Amino acid sequence: MGPDADPGGGAESVLDRFLMRAGYALDGGGSRIAAARQHASAFLDRARAEHRLPVSQRTRDLTALVVSELVTNAHKYAPGPVLMELRISTDHVDIVVWDSDPAVPSAQSADPGRVGQHGLEIIKAVAEKLFVEQEPVGKRITVRLVLADTLDSA
Fold this sequence. Notes:
By secondary structure, the protein is of the alpha+beta class. The chain has a single domain (19-146), classed as 2-Layer Sandwich (Heat Shock Protein 90), CATH 3.30.565. It is 32% helix and 23% strand. InterPro entries: Anti-sigma-factor_SerPK (IPR050267), HATPase_C_sf (IPR036890), HATPase_dom (IPR003594).
C-alpha cells in the first residue's frame, strides 16, 4: 500500500489529513541540495508559526538530513529535474522526493570499510516509515518523521 492510500478505506484520503503541503521543482545541479534544505527549513518554520506545531529541533535536523540524502542521491543517479513535496500533519512530516531513475534503492550490507553509500541505511534508522514506489517514469520515495519527540519539543 502506498503512502497516499487510505488504509481505512473511507472517502477521506491521507492527503486530506495534512495541515500544509508544498511542492518544489529542484534544478540547478549541486545547488539543488542546498535549495532543498532551505525549502524544508522554511516549510517547518511556517508550519510552526501558522499552526503552532511542536516542531522539535531533532525533527528539524532529521528533516535536513533526509532531504540532503534523498536529493543528493537523485542528483547523482537521475538525469533531469527532481521534485520534492513536503507534507505536515499534527504529528508527522513527510518528505517526498521524485526523480527520473526507475532503479529502486536498497540498503547495502554492513561494511565498516565502505566510504559513502550509507544514505538509505541512515534514512531507515531515523524514519518512522519509508515508502519507495516505482512510477511510470522514475520513482517516488516518501520518508515520514515524527514531528515532536519527548526529549526536545521546543
